[in-house]
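Researcher: Let's do a round of design. I'm pasting the structure tokens now; please hold your answer until I've finished.
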């Protein structure tokens, strides 16, 4: 039998404090009087000073299973996600084997259900083996038990425009979405970091902003032509924001995400040659960071997505040129976003805007019913409790991830996830995973 929980004195979306009662997986009361009437037997959570949000939804997580369970598993990544306030994550397809068949996406889906910490929604590959030559089994993945709606070759770009067009045409039939890793490969051969002043000083091959912008421009034109949904992964440049704004004005069905790291870290960090700062797309300039924050606030960028990319010590702690790109993100994202002040209103954090960018909109983009819904009577209790007054000091040893490539190690960041509820059951309580 499902237990019931009374969140006493909680502020839903930062509004006036009240009591919220959760029972049988749903919110059953959202006011002090109603909650009091039905509270018998409920476990009381003292939530004074805490903000209640719809559970966070990540559009972009690398869980590494199958194939690289030494870096992460569906279970370890799910636990990291729950600790970060997430109730659903979209698991990227660049596993080994690649998630390009109904069999692999169903395997990931089932591992997610078995772990039971967040809803794991597999993303299917666009092309077989991420090879860019032949479409993957998009239809079979869509009709599989995993009901895949989002497809991406993330880690690689769908560079061939004919392949991209076909993929958009294919998914249009069932309102699927193609999530593009925008990187013109002909412009990033051997690239190690953002192309600019710092790469020139360090003598490292550069990854120019135009390699991202050229693909976004091409793909919004293609998506407009086909009339299908396009999503842009990890937008990293000011120029990309301008193209997205233009596309929106023309009515193209395009959405976009930004990572927490592109909202705070810059290419200056490469001067340390510490590979923890190597990521794809690379960290850009301070001007790009400013533009991305503004775009997130404005809504030209729809969502924050972690691009949580765990890597083993062997793959990461080596010379810069040999290190794999990617950084952890799930457990720190909310604090990192709060630290930017990008979603602040007149009276501190704009919790409604935060819920929009980190829960409602990503749930809508990924088609995840039951997630991204504000707490209200009858709504599935997929919820997150945040303590905005607390701080979090990032200690890699404390992470639930199997990997340690955390770029914020040692930093003290604002805010703390206190509890996460998945369909009314706590996956995190008192800041600790319940299992
Ligand atoms: O930095 C990155 N790491 N960017 C990607 O696109 C892929 C990811 C990974 O899989 O490690």
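Researcher: That's everything. Go ahead.
Model: Designed sequence:
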């Amino acid at each position: 039998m499902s237990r019931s929980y009374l969140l006493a004195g909680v502020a839903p979306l930062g509004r006036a404090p009240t009591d919220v009662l959760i029972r049988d997986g749903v919110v059953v009361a959202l006011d002090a009087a109603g909650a009091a009437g039905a509270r018998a037997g409920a476990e009381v959570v003292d939530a004074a000073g805490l903000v209640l949000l719809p559970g966070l939804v990540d559009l972009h997580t690398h869980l590494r299973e199958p194939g690289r369970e030494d870096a992460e598993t569906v279970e370890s990544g799910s636990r990291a996600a729950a600790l970060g306030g997430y109730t659903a994550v979209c698991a990227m397809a660049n596993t080994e084997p690649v998630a390009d068949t109904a069999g692999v996406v169903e395997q990931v889906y089932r591992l997610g259900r078995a772990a039971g910490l967040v809803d794991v929604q597999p993303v299917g590959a666009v092309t077989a083996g991420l090879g860019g030559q032949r479409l993957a089994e998009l239809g079979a993945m869509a009709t599989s038990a995993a009901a895949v709606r989002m497809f991406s070759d993330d880690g690689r770009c769908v560079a061939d425009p004919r392949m991209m067009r076909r993929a958009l045409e294919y998914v249009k039939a069932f309102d699927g979405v193609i999530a593009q890793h925008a990187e013109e490969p002909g412009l990033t051969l051997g690239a190690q970091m953002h192309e600019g002043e710092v790469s020139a000083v360090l003598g490292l091959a550069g990854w120019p902003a135009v390699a991202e912008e050229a693909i976004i421009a091409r793909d919004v034109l293609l998506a407009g032509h086909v009339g299908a949904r396009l999503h842009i992964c990890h937008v990293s440049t000011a120029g990309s924001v301008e193209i997205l704004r233009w596309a929106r004005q023309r009515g193209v069905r395009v959405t976009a995400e930004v990572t927490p790291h592109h909202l705070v870290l810059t290419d200056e960090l490469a001067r340390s040659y510490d590979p923890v700062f190597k990521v794809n797309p690379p960290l850009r300039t301070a001007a790009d960071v400013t533009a991305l924050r503004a775009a997130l606030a404005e809504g030209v960028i729809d969502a924050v997505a972690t691009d949580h990319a765990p890597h083993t010590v062997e793959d990461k702690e080596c010379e810069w040129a040999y290190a794999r790109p990617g950084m952890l993100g799930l457990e720190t994202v909310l604090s990192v976003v709060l630290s930017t002040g990008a979603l602040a209103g007149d009276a501190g954090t704009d919790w409604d805007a935060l819920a929009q960018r980190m829960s409602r909109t990503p749930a809508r983009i990924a088609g995840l019913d039951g997630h991204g819904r504000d707490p209200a009577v009858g709504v599935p209790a997929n919820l997150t409790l945040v303590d905005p007054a607390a701080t979090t000091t990032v200690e890699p040893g404390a992470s639930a991830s199997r990997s340690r490539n955390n770029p914020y190690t040692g930093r003290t960041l604002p805010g703390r996830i206190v509890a996460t509820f998945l369909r009314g059951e706590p996956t995190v309580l008192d800041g600790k995973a319940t299992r």
